[in-house]
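Dear colleague,

Thank you for sharing your sequence with our group. We've completed the structure prediction you requested, and as agreed, I am returning the results in plain text so they can be pasted directly into your records. Please verify that the sequence below matches your submission; if there's any discrepancy, let me know and we will rerun it promptly.
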Amino acid sequence: MPAVSTKLEHDTPQWQKNSPLLVVPSWAASLAIHSLILLILISSLNRCDSGQTGGEDGELRSVGIYLKQSPDAEQTDEPDQELQEPTQNQQALQSQEQLKEVLDQPPVTPLLPELNSKLLGAGPLQTPNIPSAPTSDLTTDTLMSPQTALAPPVMGTGKVNFFDAVDSGKRFVFVLDSSGSMAAPQGAPIRKARKELIASLEGLTHHQQFQIIFYNTETRAMKYRGKPTEMLYATDINRTLARQFIQSVDPDGGTAHTPALERALSFKPDVIFFLTDAKHPQLSSADLNEIRVLNKGKAKIHCIEFGEGFPVKEGNSLDKLARQNRGTYRYFNVRKFIINR
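Please find the predicted structure tokens below.
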């Protein structure tokens, strides 16, 4: 028995012999240590949760940077969209400020006064300065002079038809009788003459030139105010002014053929269309010779006669005038104008 007791005393560790505590098995110690670690972790998590704050509708969210999106904003999966939008807005604001600075600058005045009404740039477009004139001014040799009625630089050849008299050239002069006899019967002659003349002008190109002369005992040509009477290019605006001039002329007074033909030849045209009722007075042989010498065969003169009844060619001064100047002669019964109007 004493031997056994000695063995037990020998196998027992010294710290157990001297310790007043009870001996704890190893598994119990391990369980206690792990429990202590678990308690420490739980305590740490509780301290982190105590730093949370309340969200909308009672939800909780962690403390930190939180971007609140507007309820109306569209949801997107792109994480950089929120950062890109402020940058784009800033660029848009800068662009608007730069545009405002440009618009606040004073308008630039073109340096070419002749083309001022056609240039595009800052400031409003300027319209041609066309002063208004009473209707009576259009019946004289004066018409407005707009800046846009500039002549094309190159002339061209083309055909013109006036009362079935067709000819080619660059420069045309229309000479129309506007004496009182052109108003009878019932104003038909002057109405027909106006209509045919306007149609002939529409057939001209912008590279051809024209001039219009109405005459009784005086001659009235189309021209711009403040400028000498000259040939005009058949631009759109010149044809428009020509229509106004044509419609403004009313038959009145007597007849003097020679001064009108002489003035037409002074423009050095290629073709002259000469229209008259030619009742009184007739062109004399001296008048015909004067015109032929003055013309020198340069311009063709086509004659159109208005009359009643059948034409009389024998001794007809208009027929002689046409033949002496390489032109043609045509006769129209004004009674047919009344029927066909």
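Summary note from our side: Residues 167 and 328 are 10 Å apart (CA to CA).

Kind regards,
the structure core
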